[in-house]
Amino acid sequence: xxxxxxxxxxxxxxxxxxxxxxxxxxxxxxxxxxxxxxxxxxxxxxxxxxxxxxxxxxxxxxxxxxxxxxxxxxxxxxxxxxxxxxxxxxxxxxxxxxxxxxxxxxxxxxxxxxxxxxxxxxxxxxxxxxxxxxxxxxxxxxxxxxxxxxxxxxxxxxxxxxxxxxxxxxxxxxxxxxxxxxxxxxxxxxxxxxxxxxxxxxxxxxxxxxxxxxxxxxxxxxxxxxxxxxxxxxxxxxxxxxxxx
Length: 245
Prior knowledge:
Elements: E1 2-4, H1 12-25, E2 32-37, H2 43-49, E3 54-58, H3 63-70, E4 79-82, E5 87-92, H4 94-106, E6 112-116, E7 127-135, E8 138-143, E9 153-156, H5 157-165, H6 177-181, E10 196-200, E11 205-209, E12 211-212, E13 215-216, H7 218-226, E14 243-244
Parallel strand pairs: 1-2, 1-4, 2-3, 6-10
Antiparallel strand pairs: 4-9, 5-11, 6-9, 7-8, 8-10, 11-14, 12-13
Helix pairs in contact: 3-5
């Protein structure tokens, strides 16, 4: 399954770190990470993980054009794993993650457009426990409102296309500006009128955020150090940490 990574040349150390956490903590994952590059092709990443795991795609640096380039030729109904490199894996129950992946691949109803095992932040308060689908020993409950759109999760490719269609282009490197563009009156938040989304009724993973307002989070620095990665010199550091849990 294609994993669509929002990134650019400056953030490739974060991309590498994100992919590394998935490979170390979820080694049985079935993703091929589509990694965008602009001027400097990170061949070292392809060599490190192999072409079956990392597919390098040349795109313009603009956010909207990056997503358009990564999804070029991808059908709107194709399942993808949405994985911005500003988020990395810290812990996961691999067996349940794999069952979720199998559940997604088993879905034949095109009206189901999103699935997550990240029962995090506001997701529990925006889901209906009485409306569910059972898959083996897992229960997936229907989401009543989409939250955590930047969190790693399964979407139909059309959902990701639509989200970026609903935004203007953000300033270079200022991904945080897109939050403002997705204000409460943005038409994207009516996405559940276009299809149904489900969440596992309990959380099986913890993610960290790589940066906080453009500065490298302390938790991310600690993770880099734990994996023996060099701290990128072109990022300021902050003593703050932030998690999806």
